[in-house]
Structures are given as C-alpha cells and as structure tokens.
Amino acid sequence: xxxxxxxxxxxxxxxxxxxxxxxxxxxxxxxxxxxxxxxxxxxxxxxxxxxxxxxxxxxxxxxxxxxxxxxxxxxxxxxxxxxxxxxxxxxxxxxxxxxxxxxxxxxxxxxxxxxxxxxxxxxxxxxxxxxxxxxxxxxxxxxxxxxxxxxxxxxxxxxxxxxxxxxxxxxxxxxxxxxxxxxxxxxxxxxxxxxxxxxxxxxxxxxxxxxxxxxxxxxxxxxxxxxxxxxxxxxxxxxxxxxxxxxxxxxxxxxxxxxxxxxxxxxxxxxxxxxxxxxxxxxxxxxxxxxxxxxxxxxxxxxxxxxxxxxxxxxxxxxxxxxxxxxxxxxxxxxxxxxxxxxxxxxxxxxxxxxxxxxxxxxxxxxxxxxxxxxxxxxxxxxxxxxxxxxxxxxxxxxxxxxxxxxxxxxxxxxxxxxxxxx
Length: 423
Prior knowledge:
Elements: E1 8-12, H1 15-20, H2 22-30, E2 35-38, H3 56-68, H4 73-85, E3 89-93, H5 122-138, E4 145-147, H6 162-179, E5 185-191, H7 194-197, H8 204-213, E6 216-220, H9 230-244, E7 250-255, H10 283-294, E8 301-306, H11 330-345, E9 349-352, E10 358-363, E11 366-372, E12 379-384, E13 402-407, E14 412-418
Helix pairs in contact: 3-5, 5-6, 6-8, 10-11
C-alpha cells in the first residue's frame, strides 16, 4: 500500500508541560515533528455561561477573562511560538465550548458530565469559536489549523450530531467573515474512531456539504471497543470518501494504541491503564505501536498525529513517548528513527507492507527502508551485504554475500536503498 499524499508526523502536546520542562522541549525538537496539536487557555466547561443575546464584545470579554485565569499563559504561548519558529505547524483544538443555555453549572460536584450541542445553540457555539480564534491571534500565535470540536460522535466533550456539525462549520466560516477574523485551515469532523466517522458520511448530500466546508477531512483512530481491525475500518471510510468523489486531503489527528492484542483485556496489557507493570513501557509495545502507525498511511492519508508526546501527571493512560518525568520510554527511540527520516527526506511517498513490518520512504530522490519488529521475540533479517547498515555483523544465519541481523523486539532497522539523490 502506498500513500498518495506527502506524509507528515505530528504529536499532541500540552504547552503547560513544555513550559515547565526544558528537557521535554529538546526531546520534542529531536523528533523533528512536522505538526503539533495543542489546546490553550482554561477548561471552558467551567467558565462563564454563553447567552444568545450576548453582543460580540461580551463574548470577547468572556474569552479574555477565561484566558486570564490560565496560570503562566505567557510561558505557554512562548513555547509554542518557539515551535512555530522551528518550522512546526500548529494545530489548535478547543475541546468544548463554555456552558450553553439550559446546561447545568458544570463546576458543581454533582453536575452531569455528558454534553450534547443543541441545534438552537450552533450559532452561539460558532461565535465562541471565532472569538477564541480572535484572542489567540492577538497573542501572536501563527496557527496552521483548527480542528473544529473534539470527537463530536461522543459526549465526553460535547456530542454534535452530523447535521449540526455541518451547520457549525458553516456558521464558523460566516461568523469569521462577518468579524473579519482570519481562519486557519479547518480540520473536521475528528470523530473518535474510523467506524464512528462513517455516520458523518452516510447522507451523500450532507457529506458533500461537509467536504466542501472543511479544508482537511480529519478522524481519530482509537482502538475499537469490540476489537475491530482499525485498518479495515479506515479502508471503509476511504471507500465512502471515494464514492463521494472527495478530493480533500485526509489527516488522522489522534492515534494511540491501547492494546497490542485486542482479545487480551488484562489491565496491564492496555496503555489506557496507568499501572507499574504496563505493557506501554516495554519494547514490544513500542514496536507494535510503530507498526500500527505505519499501517495508517494509505490512500490520501498523509498526516498522522500521535497521542501523546508525554504522560501527564494528571492523566490516566500511558500513551506518551516520554514518561511523566520527561524520561524517554522505549517507544520514543523507535519513533525518533522514523520521524527524523520523514523530516530529512521530505517524504512524498511511503509504501507499507500489509503487516506493517516493512515501510519504504521516498523523497528528494532517495529511498530508505524501515524494518520493524512488532513482536515479543527476535526476528531474523537477511540483507545483501551492500545494503547492510554499517557496523552490523552476522547475528543470524545468512548465505554468502549477505548479512544476517537478528532484530530484537521493539527495534527498527533503517536501510539506505538509494543513499544519494538520484539525478
């Protein structure tokens, strides 16, 4: 399978953590990411309520007051400006809007957690999004993209039914034009899994309108709760888009591997559980995660954003490339091998074997292969002597003129197929 879009690696970061940890910043830059997804400001669910009759100035004031409650905001902005100055594209995500008319006080201890955006509140939500963008622009942050809402297929932030989502994107565009606020690229809808993305494409007319309104079609690819294969689900989404004749680029804006084996449900075998003996801290998990990551590049999927750069002290999972003390985990080193090559080769194409163990990157007239061991046991790799990386000796049986390399679990081998640009 070969992707038809230039490939890019991105990662979810938390500016507050980067501002506190110079080591995290240096390790982030060492990954050579092309894109960073982040949020900025307060937990809007716990801010002042939006009202339909509010003037623009009142919504602007609510947004300004919300940002004013964010401790050390200037340092958060400064670290993201540093990333932008390094050539990294910034993707903003606003998890959810402030409380809407008729919703409870979410700061109360017994307040419900689920939220659903009412059709009557779509315009108000759009006005908030535009005011938020206006304030971020005033901070001097050069945004590449805005992912409009987070996982609208569920109510953990705020659920938005497909028809209302289309209306929201349209309203954001019209509000931005009215207020003369420059829009970054709009990514959406960003549903949590490939399978839950498909309802946004089920109605052909509505789907075509959605694809007209967004600049990049985005989705998340979390493990399916009933163990469905994420790649087959992505293929179904790609087939839906092909039937619609969509030319839009496709981005996966959250990817994380919870379980190596979907059939195994023991707590220590899921990266969603923060426990000392978690599989997430092992080389085997690192290899399995990278192999699954590579398998996401197909069709027009050219951009994948990994969740997340480092484990947060307040978090419950262990998906980070770094631990909560900014120490690299096994997964950091294996991803860095690949991501630095993506940046170095300015890769315009990637071919990936069906099982994700082999990928070939091509760019600037060069080709580089990656062999990944996603299993729990070593694998033998036999290469022509001329292609064997320098310093490798026979560690498994190989025919004359070849080098046999035994690749441990969770490691990758980089092989230069065309080490110099081809004229």
